[in-house]
Structure formats: structure tokens, C-alpha cells
Amino acid sequence: MTQQTPLRRVALALAATGLPVLPLRAGKAPFGNCRTCADNACGGRPNMKTAGPCQCADVCHAWAAATTDPRVLTSPPWTAAWRRAVCVAYHPGAAGLTVVDLDDAAAVTWARETLPATRTVETTRGQHWIYRGAMPSHNAVRPGVDIKSSMSYARWLGPGTGTMTALPDVVRTLAMREPAAARPAPHGVSVPARFGGGDCRHRTPAYLERGIAMAEQRITDASSAVHATVYRTFLAVLSTHGRCSCLTEAHMARLFSAAQAKGESARHCADAWTNARTALGM
Asked: Which pLDDT value is given to residue 7?
């Protein structure tokens, strides 16, 4: 019995629950493609759940190698890989999941103040927040935060704690980029004093105040891609607060002021705000 045998046992147990798994080598990276699959000459494995056109029996194509098939997991090429593996990974998107990877304490604090509670898993430096629902993966959506779902993999670090909840809009909007051709906004932006008009879902006014303050700080802290940061911040604010009656023109002015202090023009702010509302169907 080799030291890596327990990893294969873990992988088989996870696969039996419907979670597609794969081994990771030293450095927490997937195994490289075999000679036949080098540079994806075989056509790759584009399908999220199956092997696709590539019939290679080896542990190839990174996240696309993830499988629930015990025959594959115990085949000779995979057995050899498990002997060299350092941990088990899984493909969240193929299981209908999204992992918000929080890489440090500051990111964890942001998540606790911004995101709906869900199942959490402790990592070496932070936490994984796991939601039901798949979406495109995206790295560095904000400092210390990556989104791992479709066409990505996450390390298995245990079942975690808490009840898994549905993927919220605020996470989806973090990965959204402003359309290349922005809709022109009117020169004089006229916004009602109250944006949504619906019932307020927030427990206290402090929740909104904290959210606006964090949004201002996120814009202020941007050291690059300021316009994209402004747009994603507007998306996050509107997705959380834009459909109830608590968001006012004064809050919008604070966000615009923070963006303009980073060099954004009033017109760019108005365009980003309009595009964010359009993306959210508001």
C-alpha cells in the first residue's frame, strides 16, 4: 500500500457522489498531457462532463480530465498518477457548483460582509465559499478573490461547514466585464431619488452604508484596470441594493466621486452605471 492510496480512496468516494475528480501533482498543478495529446494535437476534451473527442486513457487536459468513472480512476495510467499525486481536485462547474476562492484574511472579511452565507471550507491562507450553480470561471475579480467553476478545478479540502446556498447575482456580476461598445448615456444623467422602489431586504441601514463604503474603497484601491473595476463595482452594488428602495442618488454620487478621483470622467461613470443597470435588467 503506497502513501498515495488514501488519495485514490478519497477520489473514488467523491466520484460516487457525482463529483468529477482528478489528481494534482507537486505544485498543486494538473499532470501534463501525454505525447499523443501534447499541444492538444488530439483535439482536447472540450466537454465539461465527458472526455469529448480525445480517447486518451491518461490523466490529460487538466480540468477536462476530471471524471466520476471508477474504471478510469483505477486504470493503470491513473493508478500511476495517484502514486505521484499530492492532493485531489475536482471540477466544480461539471458538478453544478461555483467556488469563490478567498486567498487571504482581507478577502474572507470582504466575503463575510458582502456575500450570502453558504458552505465554507478552510484553506491554507483563506477559505472556499461553495455555491450551487455553475458560471464561467474568472481570476482576480477583486484582490485575493478568484471564481472557480466551469473549465477550472479546485482542491478538495474536505466537506466544509454550513448549508450550501444558491449562487447569488453578486458573485455572477463579479466576473462580468463591461461591453466593448458601451451604450451612450445621456449627458445629464437623471436618476430618481429612489432607484428600486421595492421592499428593502436589508436588516439595518448599516448594511447599505457598509456596502457603499466598501465599494468606494474598492475603487480607491484599484491600481490598474480602473474602468473595469468601476464597472464591476457598480454591478455588485446594483445587484445587491438596486432593486429596493434604500439606494439613493446620494449613494450614486459617492461612487461617482470615488471613480472620478481615480481619473474616470463623469461620462465614463454614467456609461458604466447605465451599462450595469442594463446588464441586470433594471
From this structure: 94
Q: Which residue has the higher pLDDT, 176 or 213?
A: 213
The structural domain count of the chain equals: 3
Read off φ and ψ for residue 154, nearest 5 degrees: -135, 145
Phi, psi torsion values for 128, nearest 5 degrees = -105, 125
CA distances from 207 to 80, 114, 115 (A): 52, 9, 12
C-alpha distances in angstroms, 25 versus 31, 99, 156, 214, 218?
A: 6, 21, 13, 38, 35
Q: Based on the domain organization, do 221 and 153 belong to the same domain? A: no
Verify that 98 and 84 share a domain, yes or no: no
> First CA to last CA across the chain, in angstroms?
59
Q: Would you say residue 177 lies in a domain?
A: no
Same structural domain, 47 and 9: yes
Q: Taking the model in full, what pTM does it have?
A: 0.65
H or E element that contains 24: strand 21-25
pLDDT at 177: 60
Alpha helix segments (H runs only) across the chain: 5-16, 70-73, 76-84, 105-114, 169-174, 205-221, 226-241, 249-261, 266-279
Give domain status of residue 191, yes or no: no
Q: Give the pairing of strands 165-166 and 127-132.
A: parallel
